[in-house]
Design goal:
Elements lengths: L5 E4 L11 E8 L6 H6 L6 H9 L11 E7 L5 E4 L6 E9 L7 E2 L3 E3 L16 E4 L6 E6 L8 E7 L4 E7 L7 E4 L6 E9 L2 E2 L3 E5 L3
Length: 211
């Protein structure tokens, strides 16, 4: 059922080479036509360069494809918590050694098939940020993870193309939700990020639904 949290895991851990491993998860939310074909669309795109640009605050979308970055981490991040999936979605875990320019170790492609249009309203269980209601009609309540408490920075909202649609500075965060008015944005799929110390951290996707 769409919206049901579960964990995506690859069968084998990355191996070979030396040095620290860097892990990046990518996803394509338009997998109804087949994930293998979608993955081949990446073609000659340097995913590593796109990943470095994303970490520096660039778009999460990889080139002009349907693929986008959803998580970054180290060798311990061999699984990915997934929820809020409303359409058939493809996931791939990429790995490289620190200092390398490209990802040469892609894991197997995982397809999350959605057979209906059902989705769950309420708080999504994401480790970095919770947003509700999702979908929203205009007002979004954002609950940051504990690691953001006591920090100052910027809330950034991007569309599915990675274009920045809204920036909102915030002061010290705590357990209280942060209210974000998105009434001025058109309906569609968006990602909300917390930017701290000039680094755009892992975000949470949400939907603006227009009545």
């Amino acid at each position: 059922m769409a919206g049901t949290p579960f964990v995506v895991e690859n069968v084998l851990a990355p191996s070979g080479g030396s040095g620290a491993q860097e892990i990046a998860w990518i996803m394509c939310a338009d997998g109804a036509t087949g994930c293998q074909g979608r993955f081949e669309e990446l073609g000659s795109i340097n995913v590593g360069a796109a990943y470095d640009a994303w970490l520096a605050g660039g778009p999460d979308q990889i080139g002009s494809t349907c693929w986008m970055f959803v998580a970054d981490g180290d060798a311990d991040d061999l699984s990915l918590n997934v929820d809020g999936i409303n359409s058939t979605t493809c996931f791939v875990r990429c790995a490289r050694r620190a200092g390398c320019e490209s990802f040469t170790g892609e894991g197997n492609i995982i397809t999350v098939e959605v057979l209906n249009g059902m989705h769950r309203l309420g708080v999504d269980q994401h480790p970095d940020v919770q947003v509700y209601p999702n979908p929203t009609h205009g007002q979004l309540e954002v609950v940051p993870a504990e690691r953001f408490h006591g920090l100052e920075g910027t809330i950034i909202i991007t569309n599915r193309l990675g274009q920045v649609m809204m920036e909102m500075p915030y002061e010290v965060l705590d357990d209280n939700p942060v209210s974000v008015n998105v009434e001025g944005l058109p309906g569609g799929l968006y990602t909300i990020f917390f930017k701290v110390a000039n680094r755009k951290n892992i975000g949470k996707k949400f939907v603006i639904a227009r009545r």
